[in-house]
Amino acid sequence: MNLSGKQLLHPLFISDVRTALQATSLEPSTLHLELPEASCMADPKFTADMLPRLKHLGVRLCLGDFGTGQSSLAWIRRFALDELKIDRSLIHSMPTDRGSADIIRLALIVARELKMKVVAEGIETAVQQSRLTELGCSFGQGYLFCRPLELDKVDELLREQSLHLAFREDSSLVL
Questions:
Q1: What is the pTM of this model?
Q2: pLDDT per residue over 115-151, tens digit each?
Q3: In the CATH hierarchy, which fold is given to the domain comprising 5-148?
Q4: First to last CA, the chain
Q5: What does the buried/exposed string (b/e) look like for 47-75 if buried means 16 or more CB atoms within 10 Å of the residue's CB?
């Protein structure tokens, strides 16, 4: 679930998440909250104080738009995140800009050390996917794989393509 900066800073946000989990009987670990990097860094001390409270509920936390220049590695460690999503701007410039590839490689190293999953956003070409695989990035999303679909179209796509689904230990879906 993508969050906006306003939601993140709302004083009742944690209470609202707790209420929603109880009302839906949703297993907390299946709820992944994606926090925009810029919103987290707007008030990093507040974010660092709030995120452990969300983690206490059992939800998983993801820092989106990583690499847009807002965060420091020290804050990422303090945020107790489960996942980093590398911003599409780095993915797009990676084939022609060695600096972008270096940032992605370093993000992968840091994430591994912090036991975080990394997802590359905005993969549009096989060249990008291949380079990310070489760098050790196992998860990605983007138009290369599929354009956004309405929910009823997902089942149709899976039937048409005869895809087999498997769930990993970390509850991620593998096609």
A1: 0.80
A2: 999 999 999 999 999 999 999 998 999 999 888 888 8
A3: TIM Barrel (3.20.20)
A4: 21
A5: beebbeebbeeebbbbbbbbbbebbeeeb
